[in-house]
Amino acid sequence: xxxKDNNRVExxxxxxxxxxxxxxxxxxxxxxxxxxxxxMAFTGVMDxxxxxxxxxxxxPDIKGITLAGTDIDIKAMSQDQPVLVYFWGxxxxxxxxxxxxxxxxxxxxxxxSVAMNSGPxxxxxxxxxxxxYEFDTIxxxxxxxxxxxxxxxxxxxxxxxxxxxxxxxxxxxSLPGMWWRMLLS
Length: 185
Hints:
By secondary structure, the protein is α/β, with parallel strands linked by helices. The chain has two domains: 3-52; 56-184, 3-Layer(aba) Sandwich (Glutaredoxin). The chain is built from six helices and seven strands. It has helices at residues 3-50, 74-77, 95-105, 121-131, 144-148, 175-184, and strands at 63-65, 71-73, 83-88, 111-116, 136-140, 156-161, 164-170. The protein has a five-stranded mixed β-sheet. Strand 1 and strand 2 form a beta hairpin. The longest helix has 48 residues, at 3-50. The relative contact order is 0.15.
């Protein structure tokens, strides 16, 4: 075999390796896209099932005074843009993973957190300062707001727009998951 023929064989082998690699990458991309689609469908169904006890009509108000002394009225706040309401507790291990994402969302959208059964105001303020969280927090030390809303699991996230509950989810929620819910509202 001549040197020229040898180079053609090497070039052909190199091209088939590139094509084979590209097919594997595209195949993996299709699998990832299918997985993401199924995951989104599954979490949507779970949100609907977990939200079956949450009132949809004649919603109770979420009003209160934040630890910073600001009056909060979710219905009024949500008239201009969506508002993320975050029910959580200092004692909740999953909230330790969700709270940083909620804090990030608070730099983009209005966020109000409702701290359930997490102790007196001074303890809550110290906790928030220690963690560096800057989202507005209503201290629901007696769980009155949570009880009005039938919130039994933490973390619970709700998105309100125009005074209406648009989205609801419980358990771990990622930053992209929160972001999409806010955009879809």
